[in-house]
Design a protein that fits this description.
about 140 residues, mainly alpha, two-stranded antiparallel sheet, about 80% helix, binds protoporphyrin IX containing FE
């Protein structure tokens, strides 16, 4: 039962993570007003919380419930999945800092730096690849 609950939490986290990241990508285009940027900052906070939920549920699945930890620890497919997640987390720092600062600034109309948009695009690419690795690793491929 604990495993089912944690898997559910992992999935809800992933759904919210994907939803907020897609929303950010759609809203951060061209010129953005201060009011809009404040809304994006709230979305980004939810994004951060969902990433944390995904991580905690993932760590619990790895180390505490379900299959033995060794099943994942010794699997390079799992390590690739983890690496992509870390890349996502690192890539999200720049857009998050930009959104945070811009939402508290005085500029009423902002042009989004291409670096912010590109970072989110690469994050989305990682997000598309991670589930493929997840299903393979769950089936024991790579062991
Ligand atoms: C955006 C990030 C992530 C996505 C999209 C994702 C996706 C998934 C999916 C789709 C599954 C179900 C696989 C299946 O049952 O076929 C899964 C399971 C799992 N995930 Fe994640 N995951 C993410 C992050 C993480 C992280 C950061 C960890 C570890 C710290 C982790 C550890 C696990 C574990 C241990 C399982 C259980 C696999 C099994 O049933 O044997 N995940 N994940």
């Amino acid at each position: 039962m604990a495993e089912i609950l944690v898997r559910y939490i992992h999935f809800v986290g992933i759904i919210v993570l994907a939803g907020t990241l897609v929303a950010e990508h759609m809203l951060l285009t061209g010129q953005v007003s201060l009011a809009q940027m404040k809304k994006i900052a709230r979305i980004d906070m939810v994004y951060g919380v969902s990433a944390f939920v995904v991580l905690i549920a993932g760590l619990t699945l790895w180390l505490a419930v379900g299959k033995p930890a060794e099943f994942y620890t010794s699997n390079p497919v799992f390590h690739t999945k983890l690496t992509l997640f870390v890349i996502m987390a690192l890539l999200s720092i720049y857009p998050s800092l930009y959104i945070f600062k811009a939402s508290r600034g005085k500029e009423s109309l902002m042009t989004i730096p291409p670096k912010v948009i590109n970072a989110i695009r690469v994050e989305l690419t990682c997000l598309v690849l991670i589930p493929v690795l997840a299903v393979f690793m769950a089936k024991g491929y790579g062991l």
